[in-house]
Design a protein that fits this description.
By secondary structure, the chain is an alpha+beta fold. It is 15% helix and 33% strand. The chain contains 4 helices and 14 strands. The termini are close together.
Amino acid sequence: MKLHIMTWNCALYNQPESEKSDEIFGFIKNQLNIENSIVILQEIPYKEWGNWKISKIYQALLNNFPENAYSIKFNIHNNYQIMMTVAITKGANQLNCLNESFYPIGTPRNREIAVEYHGISFLGIHAENGKDNERYLNAIPGKADIILGDFNAGNYLDSENRNIFNQILNEHICICNMPTKVTKTRRTCIDHVFIKEDMITNCSNLIVHEEMKLSDHFPITFEYEIK
């Protein structure tokens, strides 16, 4: 069996009523129409800053991926949460939530989602920023078979947390060190996929979808063969 996996920081939180959301959800649906697909998304809005109303994009997410046709998992931990990381597969009851031992800080939060799909454990993350990133990266190793998402750090020379980032390689191998985000001044390696070392030969066909200009991050897709 071959799993088809995608991770993508959609940056939808920065566009609370974005006209791009329909296109983004359409691209996600196309991925999920491939048999045995799982999608991990970051920066999905939940509440609007200030008035704390439910985001229109969160409502659109639920409308586009209804529970009778899709499995969708995320963590809501308080009434003032503005965004979250989300896991989606096609087909009801396809994902199992994993317990707190799979989470970097030891408790499920909006920045992470830990799920099991076809016997493989996934930890999708949207790592902490700035001075908090070092502590966060140090907490990640060994938490799941596949760890993927927005690490807010990378294997490049001007990353303040480059050495911490590289230590994740003790148990996992990073299969994506290519630029995945575009800023006004540079292309940045910030989104990554880590696979347990003894599983690495099962991975293939990793693609950074630079043709997708709907976010400042590119989607990443790859395949994993369950033998």
